[in-house]
Amino acid sequence: MKDVTGQKVLRDSRVTLAHGGGGKAMRDLIESVFTDVFEPDGMEDQARLTAEALAVPGARLAMTTDSFVVTPVEFPGGDIGKLAVCGTVNDLAVGGATPLYLSAAFIIEEGTEIALLRRIVATMRDEADKAGVRIVTGDTKVVGRGSADQVFITTTGVGVIAPGVELKAGNVRPGDVAIVNGVLGDHGACILAARGDMALSSDLVSDCAGLGHLMAAVQAACPNVRAARDCTRGGLASALNEIAEAAGVAVEIEEDALPLRAEVKGTCEILGLDPLYLANEGRLVLFVPEDEAEAALAAMRSVPEGEGATVIGRAKPAPAGQVTMRTLFGGARIVDMLVGEQLPRIC
Amino acid sequence: MKDVTGQKVLRDSRVTLAHGGGGKAMRDLIESVFTDVFEPDGMEDQARLTAEALAVPGARLAMTTDSFVVTPVEFPGGDIGKLAVCGTVNDLAVGGATPLYLSAAFIIEEGTEIALLRRIVATMRDEADKAGVRIVTGDTKVVGRGSADQVFITTTGVGVIAPGVELKAGNVRPGDVAIVNGVLGDHGACILAARGDMALSSDLVSDCAGLGHLMAAVQAACPNVRAARDCTRGGLASALNEIAEAAGVAVEIEEDALPLRAEVKGTCEILGLDPLYLANEGRLVLFVPEDEAEAALAAMRSVPEGEGATVIGRAKPAPAGQVTMRTLFGGARIVDMLVGEQLPRIC
């Protein structure tokens, strides 16, 4: 059934098990809600892609995947679809890859509003356009009520790593400078407030953003950038611990250099949370040699996602694998990996 | 914590929310259950892959994704992990691509047994080895009890389509011969029996299998193979309807040529199901020009997954888009797309 503009009309307002059954209802849902927006090149099960960048001798294919289960699925500053596109774009970008193509697989709970799916899909298309990637293939599955929570999305991204590019945690050396691209913890604190069960009123907006353009700017400006990590689950603390361990260096950060909104600090104080472990979805930490730090800051600040770029610390020779923070009072404390769970379903 | 063999020991017997939190518990789960078995090249978030086949001028990258939500997660002949690997390998293979790399993302319900995850991961590794693909990157998320049903897996596959290869539904022409690789409906009937709520006792085993080697054999033997489709959700009927519609041809199949086990026929008769719509996870339908049909049959029968290969019908000029079946009694009936839902969570 099509309307006067030729667009497929879906009569249902909620997803039923029939929409996952492989028949007519599924095809109608896919065409009306997904492929009309994502506009893949064909309706074969597989996308068929040409990528000249991959044919360059020495180029490598980058591949990464993430499932998104955030609750609530819509929150100030974004929704699960924005997270799914940005999260996968960022995983490619922080590894030095140029993101090219995404797949998107949806697990949908029976009874989910189709209008909600349409909003999520529209966000995904917008974010993909901004990031310069295409969503080329996908899948939908429907499960009964109570067997999932509204919608889960798994995005997989492929990109290309240009010859000679080698960003990895193990590259960080003593003396390298650690830079973040903006205030920390907004996403975690925003989701916490959006859940409503803490009765926190908040104007916080998730920091969710694609960081592909930022990474491209940094790589162009800093030929020796060592490594970058997006600070998602487990926050800045986990990213720094991974880097310290992989590189066999110590990392020392300065508490008074950490960019934090008063509101995020306040939320953490009330709830006994540590902002170092709060999730971010548009923040990364970057290590560059000291003589490239100024160039990296300038490059980051040249794009909107890096306006708040600032140095937070540096790598030291020892003790290997340890992250410490010099506190406002002049002491030092160890910043360990997160133990236990701070906030489930944050992304 | 490591045991005497150096293997990481996980003290928990069930998954907790902490295993999804981005901290120490998550890292222990990932190392102990997933990466120790999948053995990716590094512990960066992204896999970095070289593929000489992709650098060949004219080669294309194939990409496909599927989420798996089958219940029960373990069944005669396989488990959700086997489905996840075979399903994605098959989506690549039926499009003429050589499968190369897979990603695997797990959404796990709190309380799921870690021993179950280990069995699933072991199956995935086995199937990937059989198919000649590598599982190169992955993700785990944990959701609370009741927010998912044990474990959902999303696999994404990339492969390479050699220059000049062009298998697609739209290529099928009148006169082409339709071939399936074995008995139909075993997977659907097996899952139905495994759920136990029908009180069917059954010796049926899922047909779940990777079809990459079969497709490679057919492509080597038949330079003009037109199209192939795996007959998963929606069964043979849906695959044939998609082909008939895309190619603008009619497809006529013969009821007495359809390979069906007596047990599957019986299950369908008791429950009022149509075997044409039963899901298969190791069956495909292939269209080849008439003069290549013998070569295709021989090629299929040369591999274990094609031992039961048989001709089931052919493409005709009209009526375009229609699939009909000549019945045992000499009549003909239209085989339409599945309407509604036959069996939820079959894959």
From TrEMBL, chains A, B:
<dbReference type="InterPro" id="IPR011854">
    <property type="entry name" value="HypE"/>
</dbReference>
<dbReference type="Pfam" id="PF00586">
    <property type="entry name" value="AIRS"/>
</dbReference>
<comment type="similarity">
    <text>Belongs to the HypE family.</text>
</comment>
<feature type="domain" description="PurM-like C-terminal">
    <location>
        <begin position="173"/>
        <end position="324"/>
    </location>
</feature>
<feature type="domain" description="PurM-like N-terminal">
    <location>
        <begin position="56"/>
        <end position="161"/>
    </location>
</feature>
<dbReference type="Pfam" id="PF02769">
    <property type="entry name" value="AIRS_C"/>
</dbReference>
<dbReference type="InterPro" id="IPR016188">
    <property type="entry name" value="PurM-like_N"/>
</dbReference>
<dbReference type="InterPro" id="IPR010918">
    <property type="entry name" value="PurM-like_C_dom"/>
</dbReference>
<protein>
    <submittedName>
        <fullName>Hydrogenase expression/formation protein HypE</fullName>
    </submittedName>
</protein>
